[in-house]
Amino acid sequence: MNTDPLSTIFAALADPTRRAIIDQLTHGEKTAGELAKPFSMSAPAISRHLKVLENANLIDRTVDAQWRRCSLNPKGLEEVSNWVSHYQKFWADRFAALDDYLEDLKSRGDKTDERDDKGRK
């Protein structure tokens, strides 16, 4: 099955363990063993999570003697950021319109407060 990179990235980030691994890697390069410490799972299970993250281009894995080191690959997260930024403008525009509407209601409310219950001043 051939999926687009963004779908692969979101599928990788859908798992809380993989998001926690990404969070750990924001503090620097770590070995697979170091990444496994907070989790109660086997080394093969962690390895599978790392493989998913690597396939999504979210992490890089290198071999250093007998150690496999993992580091964050910012290109994968950049792709997500680019996609989300398109929708940030949409929501910013929506919130601005809501602010304008609420200000309009507030100014109308101030004028209404000056009138009695029959609409007279």
Indicate the topology.
Elements: H1 5-13, H2 16-25, E1 30-31, H3 32-36, H4 43-55, E2 59-64, E3 67-72, H5 74-113
Helix pairs in contact: 1-4
What does this 3D model show about the protein?
The structure is a single chain. By secondary structure, this protein is mostly helical. The chain has a domain at 5-73: Winged helix-like DNA-binding domain superfamily/Winged helix DNA-binding domain (Arc Repressor Mutant, subunit A, Orthogonal Bundle), CATH 1.10.10.10. 64% of the residues lie in helices and 12% in strands. It is built from five helices and three strands, in the order ααβααββα. The protein has helices spanning 5-13, 16-25, 32-36, 43-55, 74-113, and strands at residues 30-31, 59-64, 67-72. It has a three-stranded antiparallel beta sheet. The radius of gyration is 25 Å and the shape is elongated. The N and C termini lie far apart (72 Å). 12% of the residues are buried.
Q: What descriptors fit this protein?
A:
121 residues; mainly alpha; Arc Repressor Mutant, subunit A; 3-stranded antiparallel β-sheet; 5 helices; 3 strands
